[in-house]
Amino acid sequence: MIDSIKTNLKAVLETALRTANDLSEVNVVVEEPKRANQGDLSIPVFMIAKTIGKPLPETAAHLQELIRSSDLAPLFSSVAPLGGFLNLSLDKAAVAQGVFRDFEAALSEAKAGEGNGFGSLSIGAGQTVVIDYSSPNIAKPFSVGHLRSTIIGQAIGNLLAKCGFRVVRINHLGDWGTQFGKIIYAYKHFGDEEKVRQNPINELVKLYVEFHEMAKENPAMEDEARRIFNELEQGNPEYLRLWSWFREVSLEDYMKVYELLDVRFDSYNGEAFYNDKMQPVIDQLATQGLLKEDQGAMIVDLGEDLPPALIQKSDGSTLYITRDLAALFFRKREYHFDKALYVVGNEQKLHFEQLKAVVRKMGFPFWKDIEHVNFGLVLQDGKKMSTRKGKVVRLADVLNEAIELSRQTIEDKNPDLEGKAEIARKIGVSAVIFNDLKNYRANDFEFNLEEMVKFEGQTGPYLQYTSVRITSILNADDFHYDGNVDYSLLSQEVFFDIIKAAGDYGKTIERAALEASPSILAKYLLNIASLFNSFYGRERIAVEDLRERRTKEHLIYLVREILDDGMRLLGMKTIERM
Ligand code: ARG
Q1: Domain assignment of residue 221, given as a range
Q2: What domain count does the chain have?
Q3: CATH number for 538
């Protein structure tokens, strides 16, 4: 909030100074002074005096007048020159009133079905973002990396939507590629239909592993698998039928994870969807003279800094990047995106650099709108968490374990809780989500199930618990929001810290969305939750004085709305009791 007052003040003064002094350019700096006696904000006057060619005292008086006659005037209790500075003190009651006024405007918009609640913005209006996330590989387990992509992508999508962007969520399923030649080979030679039906992913993985073991002895199998994939690309009906069956049973399995996370996509067009959309791209590359032959294969040379992009193998089959190129052009045509985001692990950095570089070479300016939203590894005991005793970690199991731990905690703390199975589910899943999102996405982080489901500390349940606590305080007094607030009371430090944080909500969402960093919002929520908890530790809410009580209740109501809205944006569930 201080930030936005600073920006507004700067803009207002610069415009006013330009008009009043007939200048084309003037720079006003608004600082937060380090020293206590300099007010809340301070403007160095010297440079401005130089620009407008007037003595220091006269310039300071001029500025003072400009502030007094602006819309911002009510926000300041005093504006006074001191040395080379103009020092401003905030009128905290007026600031508090401003925060509540914004909140109420958002509430009424939300009621009218416009806007989407407190802190919603319109910076994205008229713009479209396509966001490619989750994107697991068919016939393979849904990995921890895909879980990260799903959680991060979902949150970024929500944040962008909150900012007014049109968001298109795409699950770019890995449902094409040479591995299908191998799986089809293995299935035809030693597969069992019934087993695949019963436990699809497990069985398909087994076939894939078996294939590799046997191919070590018998390298001709590799050639055969390549031939099968090639025929699949040409439309061999038997292979297509098998492939589509593998795809279907795998997707059914992934849906269980999506249901737990409550994640949905606008499109499940995976790599296979682009099978008939690659040739035009290859043709265009050829026409533009960008395609080069290299030992029978087709590549695009990307200069000194990047290895060449392999577009087509010598046997004519296409590659991951070929499909990504086709997908990108398809998305541009279909959705007219202003930004294309890819939520994919750090290890694919090179791939996305190459993708951008090829688009750039082709002369499309939208290469600049392509962004690899990268993320780090999930670690367990310092090692990459992907396999457990040689077995792949199944994501649904991890989520279910988190739910089970939450159920035990509820059993300990509040065994009579009504609807506890559903609540445990909301706590467990949200705990996993929050534990991921509180970390800056590009960093690796440790996965510790016991820690993340705790009700205290920097956890999801802590946020949910704080919200529940506020709800029960408000319900105990039968509170209803009516806007009856004594703003002068809110200028006291304990109150005002919360007001300041509440006023920063919109800016926080904007930053989190534009930087594609849900952790910015996650940290903000931890902060406002702990501000509330220390407030609650020091101040009694249910005081005799009705005006004071109502004011305090309005304040914590505001905190609860922010917590719930923020959690929703992160993809977590809010609850009413726990
Ligand atoms: N399926 C890929 C993988 O698991 C991720 C796909 C990411 N999206 C994309 N358009 N390349 O590695």
Answers
A1: 128-384
A2: 3
A3: 1.10.730.10
Query: Which residue pairs from 78-87 have beta carbons closer than 8 angstroms and sit at least 24 positions apart in sequence?
Result: 78/39, 80/39, 81/45, 81/57, 82/38, 84/44, 84/45, 84/46, 84/56, 85/33, 85/38, 85/42, 85/43, 85/44, 85/45, 86/42, 86/43, 86/45, 86/60, 87/33, 87/38, 87/39, 87/41, 87/42
Q: Model pTM greater than 0.90?
A: yes
Specify the ligand 1 atom closest to the Cα of 320: 11
The model's pLDDT over 512-556, given as tens digits with 9 standing for 90+, comes to 999 999 999 999 999 999 999 999 999 999 999 999 999 999 999
Q: Are residues 477 and 337 in the same domain?
A: no
DSSP β-ladder status, 387-388 and 383-384: unpaired
Distance from the alpha carbon of residue 515 to the mean position of ligand 1, in angstroms: 21
Q: What is the CATH number of the domain that holds 134?
A: 3.40.50.620
- Give distance in angstroms: CA of 190 to centre of ligand 1: 29
Cα(173) to centroid(ligand 1), Å: 7
Nearest CA to ligand 1 atom 8: 172
Residues with CB under 6 A from ligand 1: 132, 135, 137, 172, 174, 324, 342, 344
